Amino acid sequence: MKTGFIGLGAMGAPMARNLHRAGLLTAVWNRSADKAVAFGAETGVRVAASPADLARDCDVIVTCVSADGDLLATLNALAPGAAPGLTVIDCSTVAAATAREAASLLAARGAAFLDAPVSGGVEGAKNAALTIMAGGAPADFERVLPVLKAMGKAATLMGPVGHGQATKATNQIMCAGIIQAVGEAMAFAKAECLPLAAVVEALGQGAGSSWYFVNRAPFMVKGSYPAGFRVRLHDKDLKICRDMAARHSVALPVVESTLADYQRLIDAGHGDEDISTIFRLKDALFGASGA
Predict the structure, then answer these.
(1) Which of 126, 153, 168, 190 is catalytic?
(2) pLDDT, tens digit, 9 for 90 and up, residues 104-121
(3) Three-state DSSP state, 245
(4) By the 8 A CB rule, do 39 and 15 touch?
(5) Residue 43 CB partners (closer than 8 Å, separation 6+)
(6) By three-state DSSP, how is residue 67 classified?
(7) Using the 8-state DSSP alphabet, how is residue 59 labeled?
(8) In angstroms, rounded to a whole number, what is the distance separating the alpha carbons of residues 84 and 96?
(9) 290: Cβ contacts below 8 Å, ≥ 6 apart
(10) Angle at the Cα of 123 (from 118 to 129), degrees rounded to 5?
(11) Residue 149: CB atoms within 10 Å
């Protein structure tokens, strides 16, 4: 199964490396050509001249880009090289409506499409331990399972195209609540003069623990927030959630409060830090109280 990859960013590059290790990766393309050239030099895989060139050389193409417009622009550039038998797996986080638009664009060329957003952060991408939630035809999903399994620990078909993105939106809403709760809890622990590293060690084994707490509360202890999942990206995702909820005439309080916090962080210059930087705001609450 000759596989191509588009989008060699913080998530995409390690995902592509895992496909290479599995013997599946044929060629890559990236909007910033220097990243593709460096990846080709590292792995020996071909660097395609364009998305259409990549499509002509592959049975499967995985895309992992930043936003809805990027995905549609990429697929429009890819479409001239698409033909029956090609399957595009999009691992970006975009709106469900965008996924359906992408599927229609490729269907006009006889190609198949799966929306397959991922969860697990940079660590999951590096360790081929991502959770993948897919939308598309069952036959298309089954055909590309070797590709999905090379990138993740679990891949689940959630329904037709768009259902993968709806599931990812559900995940991002859950993450927003966890991010808020962990930030507040750690700020409270600090205000109570608890040893924060010991708090992470003890509570990481308790009922209130989560992947996020175990892996991101240490950033709060150190006061350093290297980009694992950037504030700007989760902000983008939550705006997708907001728009999807609005179609039901609903505003979700956790989404709205997190977006408000993210805007404050972006305005203060922290938009490219990890989402755990929300601790800055929670910690400041206790300073403001005069405690």
Answers:
(1) 168
(2) 999 999 999 999 999 998
(3) helix
(4) no
(5) 17, 20, 25
(6) coil
(7) S
(8) 24
(9) none
(10) 55
(11) 15
Phi and psi torsions of 118, nearest 5°: -125, 155
Q: What is the pLDDT of residue 105?
A: 97
What is the CB neighbour count within 10 angstroms for residue 131? 17
Residue closest to 234 by CA, chosen among 209, 268, 266: 266
CA dihedral for 14, 18, 20, 21, sign (positive or negative): positive
Specify the residue for token string 């999903």: 141
**In angstroms, rounded to a whole number, what is the distance separating the alpha carbons of residues 133 and 253?**
25
Segments of the chain with pLDDT less than 70: 288-291
Determine contact, residues 133/168, Cβ cutoff 8 Å.
yes
Return the percentage of the chain with pLDDT > 70, whole number: 99
- Go through the domains of the chain in sequence order and give each one's CATH number: 3-159 (3.40.50.720), 167-289 (1.10.1040.10)
Q: How far apart are CA 149 and CA 267, in angstroms?
A: 39
Q: Token digits for 166?
A: 């709806």
pLDDT digits (tens, 9 = 90+) for 52-65: 999 999 999 999 99
Give the largest CA-CA distance in the chain. Answer: 66
Is 239 among the residues known to form the active site? Answer: no
